Amino acid sequence: MDNKKSVSRSMAVIVTAVVIVFSLVVSYFAANAAVSKAYSQIFEQNLLNAEEVINEFDSSSARLNYEFSNQIFSKATIVSKDIFEDATNEYLQILAEDNKLDAVYVTDRKGNIVKSYPEQTSGAKLSDNEETVGLTKVARGSSAKMHTEPQSVDVLNDEYSLYAAVPRTDAEGAVVVKLTVDNYDEVTGANLADKCGNGIYIEKNGECLSYNADFNFDFINLENLGVTEADLNNGSFALNVKNDENFVCRGKIIGDYTVVCAVKDGGEMSFVLWVMLIIGLVLIAATVTVFLLTDFMKQFFDIKFWKFIMVGILNTIVGMGLQFLFFNLCGWGEWISSIVGYILGSILSYFLNKYFTFKNKEKGWKPIAKFALNIAVCYGLAYGIAIPLTKWICVANSLTMFGWTVDKFAGNVSMLVGSCLFVAFNYIGQRFFAFKEKK
Questions:
Q1: Which one, 14, 44, 193, 221, has the greatest CB density within 10 A?
Q2: 291-299 contacts, C-beta under 8 A, 24 or more apart
Q3: Average pLDDT over every residue of 256-277
């Protein structure tokens, strides 16, 4: 009889383990499909935005160039009209400051600078400077107006510096102004990626035009990254760049433009696999334990256990809610957030478990001291295991989700894992130590 019972239990363990493994495999593939769908939605939306933005830019490119040049020459013309024959360098400084210019030069017909702000440029020639040498044509009267190619001076603020020259009102030379602009990216299309969405790389005729994808790689074009036309035509493709950073990408060709949307592969599926593995091992171990220790488990998981679970759910809502609030909104660290959350949650837990779960009638400071000691030990064990272990796994595999940094993701996950461990340790501690029944 005992042998039959043992065989039945063994079969039950095997069948349960198979069911658990099968469920986890299905869950893994479901999670994989969910991640793929999320990537696909990002790609479709961003590439659709890119098509609209690029088509609009391409159709208005000539107008944008004209408006930009007109804006530059208008400032130079205003200054030229305000300069009179006996104007001093000090007066040029006033004109420069009023019109928000970096410099103002007045030249003769040979391109010699006869007056200027700043003053140290007086006596120099336009031909002395590689940037302004071409503007000598305006001073000589062979060109009506010119401006130099804008040069980037502040990448973060999209600022460019350039020179513009128009004839003097007396036709005896040119007036040259130097100014800083912050709208040149609109003309060149360098800001197109920002208008399309995150993780965008745009190339025109084989040269990089605009990008905000976090490639962290010095490249000239897609060819340098090993992206082929087949990749662009075959849906999603993987891209590995400097420092072994991995991206999931999808491309689209729009006329002369090639657009790639890249999402950094944060190792979500590696993380899911780790979680599935841990859950599977825990569930299988729990199954074996239940079948091998049936009588003990019946006593262990009695009505008090389920009351404890009910209290734990309420307490978790309060404690975890406060932890995530402190960590994400207040900017506190994992330890401080979890400590304060558990202190506040433990006050609620004490009264509910003492009088509802375990119906402990012990009075005085002794049960409070035992409860506090239990909480401290369980907390230290749970988070002493969860925080370093979770951070090690996340950092080693560069795991992250929801656009968080690896540290922030690891911090949130460590609090979640720690709370699960804490519940297990806390139940044992409260039942058999803090509120132990007296026989």
A1: 193
A2: 291/9, 291/12, 291/13, 292/9
A3: 70
